Amino acid sequence: MVGLIGDTPNALKVAYPPKAVETMIQEDLVFRPRLKRSLPPGAKLTDGYEIRFGARLSPSQNVSQIADGGNWPIPKDATDRQFIFKPTIFAGSYQIGLLNRFVASSNVAGFNGGESTRRPEEVMSNFGKYIESTYVGTAGDGIRGYVDSEPGANQIKMRATGAAPMGVRLLADNMYISERIAAASTVRDSIDLRQISDVNPDTNSFVYSGVDQTPAADDPIYVVPESALLGATIAASAANGLRGQVDDGTNSQFIHTLDRTAAGNTKLKSVVRKNGGERRNLTESLLITIVHETARRSKKHPSTLFMGEGQVEKYIENIAPQKRFPAVGRQRPGKSTGYVIEELNFTSPYGSMDFMPSFDAAPGSVWGLSWDSFFFYSAVDAQWLDGHDMGKLLMLPGSNGSGHKAAWAAYLCSIENWGTDFAIGNFELGDLKDRLLGD
To answer: Contact, 159 vs 146, CB < 8 A?
Structure first.
């Protein structure tokens, strides 16, 4: 019986095997569960834990019409590049004191209730939401938002308009944050490994622990596991994000190490259409136009419209009222209000596009996603590690590196990443009015 296991790490692995952990961290997620576990054809793992695969930008096009007796088209090679892709590490942990472990939770009840059950399940839930928010809300640089101002002592207000208006969407109480003077740069005024509290979505602000310092506008905010991390280390550790994969080089100049802005690399850019910073309502015409353009450029037909809740609200306000449902026979149209997400869809010239709202998505944009252009690599599925892994090289639970605490700890880990090898098959429609932007 699970409840009779006295060794915490082993009990966790029995109570929550990898398949069970994966199921639990996927709860309430929308994006990560839709990613297909695969790598592009020809992908190879090389030294340095790099995965290399080809980027076919253009076929050879050895075609033409010829005169009778004329020469066949001169053969030429296709336009190829090479992507370099790396998996990243997501980690979680928790710690309980010895009294809690052995007294408050008896040996029999240790994994049948109390803190010993609540703590790991809470960590798994936080773990899944953190991965999802990284994949959906970031540009693949680890940045969770940008400073707007300092509303008071030990407070930071996050930018909620303009470029990357994430506000506090990707932050939560008790996270450790670090403010940097620029992306992948040095710490601003000792604001490093500060625990945040009182995250306020209404004011897009939070309180941070420690001595009051002076944040600066437009500084990036990162979530960090420890202090004094090099900026380059933080950036290199970051998993890919939707705002960087489906992009034209504005948020992420490089995609899998290739420069989108270099000559001949236009097809590494997604179809991005904005309005010079002037927001406008989402309309059926805008959607049809960008769907047409994506199909013309890539021969792909995105099947999902991905957006934040503000865009769903704008769609219902401006487009859904135009829909008509004729009565069939003696049936009368329903009189219910609101919407069911499974029934909300947009009919493009190439079929129905389902809606996928996410509270992690940046406001003011709608993304058109072609799922077959994405890949997902998992070297290690989410699982609890124990002290017997790797020939007992892992430190004993509660170790601080030099001694041992009167506590018991457990560690959750996954090694994974995702991406696209056909960015041009996806689109972003930006500069849209959004309730979250005050519209």
So the answer is: yes
